[in-house]
Design a protein that fits this description.
globular, mainly alpha, 3 strands, 3-stranded antiparallel sheet, 3% strand, 10 helices
Length: 215
């Protein structure tokens, strides 16, 4: 992996897991200092992320995290429901006992991180769960589309982080994993429609919560 690829992947993961605020400005110099690199790999990583609509670039080379709105949230979730629901449905026939067991481990880790009040780890395990499921679709095109949608969803994940973090500190545990359990139950019974519906319900529940935060 090149230095440029490493910077790109780390920034990509940070965006997907809500590490940056909506409209936050990311400068080349500050990121280069953070990653301990020259400006060139950072500039190229920002250019790639802007091409994926994950960032908005300025003439001086800096980049800004997109703003949030209820309309954009609804548009993204509508696309996520269509694409991720299909990937989940296709995965049902391809995931065996070993893959389902791996999903159960990821779900357990997700819930454990909620009990440990680790919001970023919790959201990271949530992402791992979803993509482990979608990989079972054996569709390179769907996976690429889903990754792009999750990138553009990054500012909303930050909103979710800010909402969940104080709840974790006050209540000590929160996981939002009901629909993940439903997806695993449907996978065990080879219920493709059930798996798809569980993922749709999961996205819709997040959309409803974030909609109130946008308002």
């Amino acid at each position: 992996m090149t230095i440029q690829d490493g910077v790109y992947r780390q920034l990509r993961h940070a965006l997907m897991t809500g590490r940056f605020e909506p409209e936050q400005v990311l400068t080349i110099s500050s990121l280069a200092e953070t990653f301990g690199t020259s400006h060139m790999p950072v500039r190229e990583a920002l250019r790639r992320l802007a091409a994926e609509n994950a960032l908005v670039t300025a003439p001086n080379g800096s980049a800004r995290v997109p703003s949030v709105s209820r309309a954009r949230l609804d548009d993204l979730c509508r696309a996520r429901i269509a694409v991720e629901g299909l990937a989940a449905e296709l995965a049902t026939a391809n995931l065996g006992k070993a893959e389902i067991a791996e999903l159960e481990l990821l779900l357990a880790a997700h819930e454990a991180s909620g009990r440990n009040e680790s919001v970023y780890e919790m959201l990271g395990k949530n992402r791992e769960f979803h993509f482990a499921l979608y990989q079972g679709s054996n569709s390179e095109v769907l996976i690429q589309l889903i990754e792009t949608l999750w990138l553009r969803f990054g500012p909303y994940m930050r909103m979710l982080t800010r909402h969940v973090e104080p709840i974790l500190k006050s209540q000590g545990a929160v996981t939002y994993s009901q629909h993940h359990h439903e997806a695993i139950d449907a996978l065990r019974s080879r219920d493709a429609a059930g798996v798809r519906q569980a993922i749709i319900d999961d996205i819709a529940a997040t959309q409803e919560l974030l909609g109130t935060l946008c308002d």
